[in-house]
Specification:
This is YnbE-like lipoprotein. With 51 residues, the protein is mainly alpha-helical. 29% of the residues lie in helices and 0% in strands. The protein has two helices and no strands. The chain starts with a helix and ends in a 5-residue tail after the last helix.
């Protein structure tokens, strides 16, 4: 009984030798949606160099 108590109470925690590396592959996409009224749309079509 005394031997079982002596063996069960020891826990060792140690830091790793190498740094922890976390690779994150993040893909961010953005979609822009716009609406033009008929007058603005025709103005842009008639003057393509306006922008």
């Amino acid at each position: 009984m005394i031997a079982a108590v002596g063996l069960g109470g020891c826990v060792n925690v140690s830091a790793p030798d190498k740094p922890i590396v976390i690779n994150l592959n993040i893909n961010i996409t953005q979609e822009v949606v716009y609406k033009l009224d008929g007058e603005a749309k025709s103005l842009i079509q008639n003057n393509p160099g306006i922008f």
